[in-house]
Amino acid sequence: MKNRDEVRELFKAKKVPLTHQRLAVYEELSGRKDHPSAEALYESLKKDYPSLSLATVYKTLQTLHEMGMVARVDSPAAQARYDAIVETHHHAVCTACGRIEDLFDPRLDTLPAPKAEGFVPSGHSVHFHGLCARCAKASAQKTR
Ligand SMILES: [Zn+2]
Ligand SMILES: [Zn+2]
């Protein structure tokens, strides 16, 4: 995650114009820990940025992704989810509500690369699938 000055510098270095809307999308994403989809970002930004469109949010996320400023997170749902943490880390993915939480564990950072024929790994992220605390509690109550 980067502060506003670092964001400005990065845009300048890549010669990409930093619009208010692009900054707003990045800052909203950085401020959230729930790995939101483009739709979820749009929902929370549209009050403050009435001229913002969902298409602009998609395009901005694409631009930020190309600049290496955001990561896409694999999720069991069809929607792409986004992350302002681009350093190696891992995720706990709730299969019931789709919540994605960050996991930081140096043991997972140093997994040996798989020996798959011809495969050249560029990085990895471990995803644990299961139920988040809230969903685990709800399902325990249901079965009682
Ligand atoms: Zn859940
Ligand atoms: Zn993450």
Fold and architecture overview:
With 144 residues, the chain is α+β, with helices and mostly antiparallel strands. It has two domains: 4-73, Arc Repressor Mutant, subunit A (Orthogonal Bundle); 87-142, Dna Ligase, domain 1, CATH 3.30.1490. The protein contains six helices and five strands. The strands form two sheets. It has a three-stranded mixed sheet, with no helix packed on it. A two-stranded antiparallel ribbon has the order 1-2. α2 (20-30) crosses α3, α2 crosses α4 and α3 crosses α4. The longest helix is centred in the middle third of the chain and has 13 residues, at 54-66. It is globular and about 50 Å long. Bound molecules: zinc ion (ZN) (2 copies).
What's the arrangement of secondary structure elements?
Blueprint: H1 4-14, H2 20-30, H3 38-45, H4 54-66, E1 71-73, E2 81-83, E3 90-94, E4 100-103, H5 106-109, E5 127-130, H6 133-142
Parallel strand pairs: 3-5
Antiparallel strand pairs: 1-2, 3-4
Bound molecules: zinc ion (2 copies).
CATH topology of the largest domain: Arc Repressor Mutant, subunit A
Share of helix among residues? 25-40%
Tell me the radius of gyration.
17 Å
Main sheet characteristics: 3 strands, mixed
Side by side, the strands of the main sheet go: 4-3-5
> What is the CATH architecture annotation of the largest domain?
Orthogonal Bundle
The count of strands amounts to 5
Low-confidence stretches: none
